[in-house]
User: Which sequence fits this backbone?
């Protein structure tokens, strides 16, 4: 999956495999260490890629302010920001900055990118959390149901549903949800993370966390919490459905795969019921590949978050990214994208470790 | 399959070798239904793209006809069955013209990424070594990264954001293909590594065949058999990425071509005031196109994997008795399609392409 | 008391891509209490399908007719499995009839401890407390011979060896004390020394637990060792049923006779080997050997800094011109590695390996390539040894084209036809694709490809282990004939002593990377010196129930001696 699987060059090496698996002590600790070391090249590659792509085409000052300033003024700003130095020097400086957690300063509103992250990251985290809940609640049970009723009517309906989830762009799903629930039925708010009144109340809290759900609970006012949750419903569903479709499909295929293994037949021959076969014997082993692939879906989720946040004016990182894109502020874009690369690499690391924890063959 | 061998001429019939036709004949029941539905939707999409000039009542950038301007945000009427957009374009026409843009992007993106991906995957998987390791790490890194963000960065690099039809199409296609090269790379590399360990490749090595001969004659042709499958899945991803780019304002200018994502971006504000027609139709066009292509892809995936393939039920105890050892293990346990197929098919990594946008 | 199970007029059909296929046709069988009924047959004979029907385990593509009347252990009730509902099936599975699977490593769920899996079966049938179930699980593990069952009960399947896994699988089958156990090729995936232990355990199931056993197997030695009664199946029909001694002593059906005649019998090859040795020229021993290994050592690199795995350690042997060396060993003994090293597929990491005058330790592919025309190789798996997209003629022509003896496949066709005839395949088969040939036919085509350049050395890596016994007999015969005709030297690798014995001039026995014994067939098989060779030889069941009973006693003596 994400692994750097270097399949043993020699298929004749079969005898080596069982030995290696039984080597005591190597196990999990070693795996975590190796997996952790792999984060470094991943982040390095992505950060370099972003830098190379964005900077070979020109300097960000011209892109952002070109046309609005005279040539001399531009030159002055470029020199001041150090963009007239050789690229390699800038690159090394950029790497050094990233290593110390400095992702640059935006041009359009002159804020450190890290500050943008701290201010808006919470909103994206909240959205991702809720939509993951939606995705798990829909994807996993229905995936099991589809596997259980494989090739029957229920399965066909669920599969088409899953494909529809995936085929519908999140922004279109969001717009339709808005149209139905906010404009026509008027039961849920159109956009934003909270109404102005609720936001005001939360601002008076000491050290607001930026996670509105937590802040709303801290105000102790149920109305504020209800308001915050009502705002979260539609964006979470829009983004959650996209991932739910993928999860459903994943669970279904992998469970069907394990359902046809010998050990499921063996359990069946001991008199274990069909439901339990699916729920326990097929699901648990299937979970290992499922979790690893779900880790890769973090990327899908983040990409979707950009679109969802734009659709619902949900002021998170994705919304800000879109804003900076409109403003042609490529320092900000570069910073946010590089930062997201770090987040993706870290999440994949955690997910791989989780998958390893479930697999008893790695645990020992 | 086996008992007929003794009597039938050995060459397989053409209709059994054509990729999609063969699968269509092979499929039964619901799987056939899904495949047929997918083929119809996809066919409709291609048909519309080709005949867009005849089907669309107006041009994609037409704002007025002899009766004057169309007007902005007009509800559906006989002159404009799908209404008009905030910019005063005819929604029906732009939806129809949009198929053309989508098709062009798919073709360009897939052609660009398929060659690079297959070549790199083949070389990397076959030779292994440090080059392989480096490529795997790079491709894994790109693969794990949100493809939409990468496409945005690419779009900035290529066109600074917006451009003409061909510029826009190419920019979108290149952005998308950069994202998908790692996917082709991964699939082809995995296949190559698997095939490399097969006895027939080792046999060629023992016989003293050169590396280039082994790669072309034995590995390449066998490794690319899953390509139609990846092709369909990536086409749908290409459409979604294009729409995402358009929605964020990195699409093609409305005067250059019709693009659904751009139209949806412009329709975002309409929705809040209850104007539904500007969003619904381009959105449905995306959904139906992706749905059609994905249905085809999923069905091909199922049919390629004996464990997922459905079969007709037989009447009580009918059929000829299986011939002993025509195939090792006899008809019943010779995969694909026999009992063994149910028990140990290939792993899902080979065919199961993770869906990712 | 009535029989444990009566199968009456059973017919089973499957839906396949090529339409319905009938796997079992009008089979009638019965198993009494405390009896081992062996169902013998080659692949595709319908034996496994018959067995699975007893538990109602057929996939949904199957359609069944006839009746399978199963009675419980006490003999108080009878049910027709074919007509049961899913729920009723569940009730009888495990309690009335249990199953032992062929491949123990896939029959255990890798993510649950073995004890958990045993307890699950107990709880599926009775309201039993977790503690009580655990006690029973520990008890049954101990009784099937798992040491320290109190500790092992919490271990995961991957922590057990292959033989132990099969014991666990048998424990699972025994724990609910069913009247009948269906064992589907229970020892096929195991090494021969482990096989003997599992057969002993199954015998105890019958003798101590008083169970009936349906033993599905293709191995006549296993039948002779364990069965009380035998049913021979061919093409979905039972062609003969008899008491085990009667069947081996005086088989009635033609198919049974042919089957028994095809089974290799260890010790029968000694005569031919002696005759060949007598015919060798006087200066034969002075001729330069084709292959010579001195202190050969082969290591596979360990991953992620783990120590490398030494597959072959300090092995010496020679293969002289025209001589067949049989290399025998169990899985993981390093025998295949040696074959691959000679062919230049695996790197030699220590010692010396001379092949056709080249030192393989540190050789470059470029230098070795011209000599490759002098080496042939036959692979184990006939299913994957041909490129599925090329015709047989194109595949067989490959060596000719590669070494410039022909411009392309059509140019080589004349020679290809001769080669196909040499391996007794009609030349028209050249136009077929590999999947259109049977396993035996493919293995013969594989031989044709290997001898296309008339090599001086032929490496055959378990060429018959994937084949049915009757097909194996024909391929072995062909091999011997080709060897006589072309006079190539050969390394013949096999796990089966009896097979090696048929062909080899000399036999070398590998054990855990070491060569423990070498010599002529008469020496190694007649008077083995090494304790492992002795055990290996004694573990090999012979297809003769009377002789096998004696050998069993001999094996017990060896085991007790240490």
Assistant:
């Amino acid at each position: 999956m994400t692994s750097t699987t270097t399949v043993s060059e020699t298929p004749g090496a079969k005898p080596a495999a069982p030995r290696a698996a039984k080597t005591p002590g190597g196990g999990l600790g070693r795996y975590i260490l190796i997996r952790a070391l792999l984060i470094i090249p991943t982040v390095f590659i992505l950060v370099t890629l972003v830098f190379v792509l964005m900077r070979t085409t020109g300097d960000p000052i011209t892109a952002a302010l070109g046309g609005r300033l005279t040539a001399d003024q531009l030159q002055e700003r470029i020199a001041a920001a150090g963009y007239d130095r050789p690229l390699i020097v800038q690159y090394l400086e950029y790497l050094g900055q990233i290593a110390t957690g400095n992702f640059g300063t935006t041009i359009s509103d002159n804020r450190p990118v890290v500050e943008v992250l701290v201010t808006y990251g919470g909103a994206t985290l909240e959205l991702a959390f809720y939509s993951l809940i939606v995705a798990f609640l829909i994807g996993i049970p229905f995936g099991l149901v589809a596997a259980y009723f494989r090739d029957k009517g229920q399965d066909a309906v669920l599969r088409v549903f899953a494909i529809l989830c995936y085929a519908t762009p999140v922004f279109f799903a969001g717009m339709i949800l808005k149209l139905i629930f906010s404009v026509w039925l008027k039961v849920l708010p159109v956009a934003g993370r909270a109404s102005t009144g609720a936001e005001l109340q939360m601002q008076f809290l000491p050290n607001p966390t930026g996670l509105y759900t937590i802040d709303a609970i801290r105000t102790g006012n149920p109305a504020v919490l209800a308001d915050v949750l009502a705002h979260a419903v539609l964006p979470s569903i829009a983004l959650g459905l996209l991932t739910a479709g993928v999860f459903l499909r994943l669970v279904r295929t992998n469970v069907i795969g394990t359902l046809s293994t010998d050990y499921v037949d063996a359990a069946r021959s001991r008199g274990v019921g069909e439901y339990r076969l699916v729920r326990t014997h097929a699901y648990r082993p299937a979970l290992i590949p499922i979790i690893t692939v779900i880790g890769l879906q973090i990327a899908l989720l983040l990409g979707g978050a950009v679109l969802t946040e734009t659709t619902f004016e949900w002021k998170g990182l994705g919304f800000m990214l879109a804003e900076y894109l409109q403003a042609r502020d490529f320092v900000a874009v570069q910073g946010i994208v590089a930062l997201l690369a770090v987040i993706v690499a870290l999440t994949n690391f955690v997910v791989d470790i989780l998958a390893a924890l479930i697999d008893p063959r790695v645990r020992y | 399959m086996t008992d007929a061998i003794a009597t039938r001429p050995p060459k397989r019939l053409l209709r059994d070798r054509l990729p999609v036709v063969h699968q269509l004949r092979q499929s039964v029941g619901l799987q056939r239904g899904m495949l047929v539905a997918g083929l119809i939707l996809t066919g409709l999409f291609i048909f519309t793209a080709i005949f867009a000039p005849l089907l669309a009542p107006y041009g994609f950038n037409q704002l007025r006809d002899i009766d004057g301007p169309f007007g902005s945000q007009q509800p559906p009427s006989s002159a404009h069955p799908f209404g008009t957009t905030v910019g005063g374009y005819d929604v029906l026409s732009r939806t129809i013209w949009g198929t053309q843009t989508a098709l062009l992007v798919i073709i360009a993106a897939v052609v660009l990424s398929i060659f690079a991906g297959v070549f790199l995957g083949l070389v990397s998987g076959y030779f292994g070594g440090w080059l392989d390791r480096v490529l795997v790490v790079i491709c894994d890194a790109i693969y794990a990264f949100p493809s939409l963000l990468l496409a945005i960065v690419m779009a900035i690099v290529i066109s600074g954001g917006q451009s003409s039809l061909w510029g826009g199409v190419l920019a979108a296609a290149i952005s998308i293909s950069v994202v998908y090269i790692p996917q082709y790379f991964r699939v082809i590399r995995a296949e190559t590594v698997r095939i490399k360990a097969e006895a027939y490749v080792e046999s060629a090595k023992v016989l003293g065949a050169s590396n280039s001969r082994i790669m072309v004659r034995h590995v390449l042709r066998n490794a690319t058999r899953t390509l139609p499958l990846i092709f369909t899945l990536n086409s749908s991803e290409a459409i979604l990425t294009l729409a995402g780019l358009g929605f964020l304002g990195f699409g093609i200018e409305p005067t250059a071509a019709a693009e659904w994502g751009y139209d949806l971006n412009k329709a975002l504000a309409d929705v809040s005031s209850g104007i539904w027609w500007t969003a619904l139709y381009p959105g449905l066009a995306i959904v139906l196109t992706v749905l059609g292509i994905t249905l085809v892809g999923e069905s091909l995936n199922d049919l390629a994997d004996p464990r997922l393939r459905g079969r007709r039920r037989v009447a009580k105890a009918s059929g000829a008795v299986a011939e002993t050892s025509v195939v090792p293990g006899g008809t019943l346990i010779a995969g694909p399609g026999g009992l063994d197929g149910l028990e140990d098919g290939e792993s899902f990594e080979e065919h199961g392409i993770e869906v990712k946008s | 008391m009535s029989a444990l199970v009566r199968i009456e007029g059973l017919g089973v059909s499957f839906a396949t891509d090529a339409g319905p296929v009938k796997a079992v046709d009008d089979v009638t069988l019965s198993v009494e209490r405390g009896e081992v009924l062996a169902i013998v047959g080659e692949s595709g004979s319908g034996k496994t399908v018959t067995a699975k029907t007893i538990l109602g385990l057929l996939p949904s593509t199957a359609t069944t007719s006839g009746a399978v009347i199963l009675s419980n252990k006490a003999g108080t009730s009878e049910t027709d499995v074919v007509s049961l509902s899913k729920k009723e099936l569940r009730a009888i599975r495990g309690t009335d009839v249990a199953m032992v699977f062929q491949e123990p490593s896939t029959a255990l769920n890798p993510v649950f401890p073995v004890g958990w899996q045993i307890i699950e079966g107990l709880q599926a049938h009775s309201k039993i407390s977790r503690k009580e179930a655990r006690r029973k699980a520990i008890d049954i593990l101990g009784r099937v011979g798992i040491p320290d069952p109190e500790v092992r009960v919490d271990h995961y399947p991957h922590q057990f060896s292959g033989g132990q896994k099969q014991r666990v699988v048998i424990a699972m089958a025994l724990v609910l004390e069913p009247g009948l156990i269906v064992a589907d090729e229970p020892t096929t995936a195991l090494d021969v020394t482990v096989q003997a232990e599992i057969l002993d355990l199954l015998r105890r199931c019958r003798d101590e637990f008083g169970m009936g056993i349906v033993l599905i197997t293709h191995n006549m030695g296993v039948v002779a060792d364990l069965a009380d009664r035998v049913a021979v199946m061919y093409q979905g029909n039972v062609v003969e049923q008899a008491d085990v001694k009667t069947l081996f002593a005086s088989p009635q059906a033609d198919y049974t006779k042919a089957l028994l005649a095809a089974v290799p019998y260890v010790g029968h090859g000694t005569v031919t080997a002696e005759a060949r040795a007598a015919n060798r020229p006087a200066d034969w021993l002075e001729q330069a050997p084709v292959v010579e290994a001195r202190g050969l050592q082969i290591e596979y690199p360990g991953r992620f800094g783990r120590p490398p795995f030494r597959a072959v350690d300090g092995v010496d042997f020679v293969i002289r011109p025209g001589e067949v060396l049989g290399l025998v060993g169990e899985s993981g003994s390093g025998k295949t590695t040696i074959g691959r090293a000679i062919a230049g597929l695996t790197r030699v990491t220590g010692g010396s390996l001379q092949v056709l005058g080249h030192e393989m330790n540190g050789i470059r592919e470029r230098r070795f390539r011209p000599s490759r025309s002098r080496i042939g190789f036959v692979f184990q798996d006939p299913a994957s040894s041909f490129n599925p997209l090329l015709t047989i003629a194109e595949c067989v022509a490959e060596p000719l084209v590669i070494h410039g003896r022909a411009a392309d496949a059509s140019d080589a066709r004349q020679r290809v036809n001769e080669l196909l005839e040499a391996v007794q395949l009609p030349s028209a088969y050249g136009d077929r694709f590999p999947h259109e040939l049977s396993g035996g036919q493919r293995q013969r085509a594989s031989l044709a490809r290997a001898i296309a350049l008339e090599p001086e050395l032929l490496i055959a890596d378990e060429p018959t282990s994937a084949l049915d016994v009757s097909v194996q007999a024909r391929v072995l015969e062909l091999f011997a004939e080709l060897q006589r005709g072309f006079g190539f030297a050969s390394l013949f690798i096999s796990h089966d002593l009896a097979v090696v014995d048929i062909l080899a001039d000399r036999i070398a026995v590998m054990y855990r990377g070491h060569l423990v014994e070498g010599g002529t067939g008469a020496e190694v098989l007649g008077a083995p010196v090494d304790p492992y060779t002795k055990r290996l030889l004694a573990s090999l069941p012979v297809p003769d129930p009377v002789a096998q009973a004696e050998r069993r006693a001999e094996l017990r003596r060896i085991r007790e001696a240490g």
